[in-house]
Amino acid sequence: AAVESAPAIVVGSGYGASVAALRLGQAGIRTLVLEMGRLWNTAGPDGKVFCNTANPDQRSMWFRTRTEAPLATFLWLDVVNKDVSPYPGVLDRVHFDHMSVFVGRGVGGGSLVNGSMAVTPLQSYFAEQFPTVDTAEMYGTYFPRARAMLGVNTIDPAWFESTEWYKFTRVSRKHAQNTGLKTTFVPSVYDFGYMQREAAGTATKSALGQEVIYGNNFGKKSLDKTYLASALGTGNVTIHTMEKVTGISRAGDGSWVLSAERIDYSGAVVETKQYSCTYLFLGGGSLGTSELLLRSRQSGTLPALDASVGAGWGPNGNTMLGRANHLWDTVGANQSTMPVMGIDDWANTDNPVFAEIAPLPTGLEHWVSLYLAITKNPQRARFSYGSGGLSLDWSGAQSAVSSGMAKKLFDRINSANSTIYRYDLFGSPSRVFADDFTYHPLGGCVLGKATDNYGRVKGYSRLYVTDGSLIPGNIGVNPFVTITALAERTMARVLVEDTAP
Ligand code: FDA
């Protein structure tokens, strides 16, 4: 088959990939983006592009016969998950032995399915995790650049205090305050102006219509509406969808050669393709980039990769849990899917936790306060690649560190409010803390270890990593703003030093 070549290729189309594509395109470099998922721009039979969490169909999950939502059950009934037909749906859940990882699939990667929380990490913790990065420059230049491009906005506090859609958040705030804990608003890339129109009945409901993990039809500034739209606007960027890059090798003339498999909507491989480029940017996410590099080392085509490729992985300490409220403390049947507040106990050096107040939008009063706790779990794991594909040596004992930290915080909250945990949410009454899945896979190609200080892969030239695999396992807040800002920093450097003629 003919080899298609471009000066630059970007693998994936999530945060790191989209930044690379835009900045390459603006620099006048013709760039090809290869994404394994589909482009989400065509309405299904119901007139909508995405399905909601209440009625998931084939669009929900990546080649499944049944959905695998984070909350397995409700009141011990398996009412949450539904049978679906296999299709390249927008949310994937990748299973390893003791950890499963939620990731987005499609043009825009995780931005299509995530909760929109756009949080800049604490500067001191960023410095702790990235000792070789100039933090003044990050906080002065790259974080502001990332937030502006992503369209970060904040909820109007007066509307927040009055709307029924955030009563669940105000109840959880009260319980945190009763415990003597601090809460803080969390910025978002969901357009709060749009959300207020949803509440007023003048715009089609999306965040207020139970849409989130299977995509939002309106309101959300996902990457296809920000970075990727601008990238295409340069005229230099092309996106190929439904193509998974399976291997990387280097030709005699120093150019990169990629093999890719194009699949159809049934998942069948319909074509094997070959690409070549001068500059190669990996943005497949923590799992995608780690898999691609380890697979290429295993097959002998990238033998000089550093031994630390695959290492330094962590789930950002993620733990979900629910509390049961008193009958008089109603959380409301109407809940926005976009979280806007966190309980910030990160400064508690004995047990640093940042816990987001999460919605559970069922359309019925359920008295549940739900949380996604991000804990400062120091445990790390390593990916490897073998005959069974990608594996991860994360253990149950390592997860127990996350849930142990979450428990310490929420035992305090329960005790101050005379409340208890909910036992019916995660599949079995003995599972109060869901610590065996993560939304925030981080690491596998850590900055300054597997790469130089700017994401250039050690052992090779003109090979870059721009995604969440650069972050060493934990960043203390939701990660996409950090991933975006680090990618901006890499691109600024690379376009000055590496691509100049
Ligand atoms: P990302 O995962 O976004 O993109 C990788 C892309 O590459 C995908 O589209 C994938 O299909 C593609 N790909 C992978 N391998 C490939 C290959 N070999 N060939 C071709 N394509 C390939 N974060 C946050 O900050 N705030 C939040 O509110 C949330 N909430 C949240 C909810 C849910 C349900 C999820 C799943 C995740 C979040 N996150 C989040 C996490 C956030 O979405 C995540 O950290 C980023 O999307 C990661 O960005 P990356 O650039 O690393 O890759």
From TrEMBL:
Q: Name one GO biological process term.
A: cholesterol metabolic process
State a single Gene Ontology molecular function: cholesterol oxidase activity
Gene3D superfamilies assigned: Cholesterol Oxidase, domain 2, FAD/NAD(P)-binding domain
Keywords of this protein's UniProt record, alphabetized?
Cholesterol metabolism, FAD, Flavoprotein, Isomerase, Lipid metabolism, Oxidoreductase, Steroid metabolism, Sterol metabolism
EC number(s) for this protein? 1.1.3.6, 5.3.3.1
InterPro entries the UniProt entry points to: Cholesterol_Oxidase, FAD/NAD-bd_sf, GMC_OxRdtase_N, GMC_OxRtase_C, TAT_signal
Domain (Glucose-methanol-choline oxidoreductase N-terminal) spans 104-127
State if Lipid metabolism is listed as a keyword.
yes
The similarity annotation says: Belongs to the GMC oxidoreductase family.
Question: What protein name does the entry list?
Answer: Cholesterol oxidase
Question: Which species does this protein come from?
Answer: Streptomyces sviceus (strain ATCC 29083 / DSM 924 / JCM 4929 / NBRC 13980 / NCIMB 11184 / NRRL 5439 / UC 5370)
